[in-house]
Protein: Roadblock/LC7 domain-containing protein
Amino acid sequence: MTADQDWMIDSLARVAGVRHVILCSRDGLVIARSASLDRDDSERLAATCTSLLSVSRSVAGTYGTGGRALYQVMAQYEGGVLFLRGAAEGTCLGVLTQGVIDPALIGQEMQRLVLRYGESVLRTPLRDGAPNTFTSAPAPGAATGGPGA
Structure:
C-alpha cells in the first residue's frame, strides 16, 4: 500500500467529530492519512499509534486473561479522544476526534472500514527484523460480515 490509498479512509474521516484518520504499518510508516493531516503530523501520529499499541499489547499479555490479543485502545485527553486498533496483520488504524463524540459510533465505523477492505487489502507484510507488535483480532461479540458490513 502507498499514500495513494488515502481514499480508503475518506468515509471514516467524514464521521461527525472525527478530526484525523491514519492507517500505518506496525513500524510506524504512514500507509494512508486523512486530508486534514500534513505529512509531518501524520508521521508523528503514526509513530505514536504504533508505540501505544505495542505497549498496550504488552499489558494485555501480562495482565489479560488470554494471549496478547488487543482489541482497541482509547485515550481521552483534554479536547479529544484517540482510538486505535489493529486493521489487519501488521497494520494499525488510528482516529483522533473532537472532545464530544459518540465513542460507539467511532468504534463501529472503524470496524466497518476494517471489514470493508479486509486482510488482503489492509495487511502490511512483515519487514526483516520488524517485530510483530499487534494483531487485528476483533473484539468479542464484534459484528462480522462482508464488504457491506
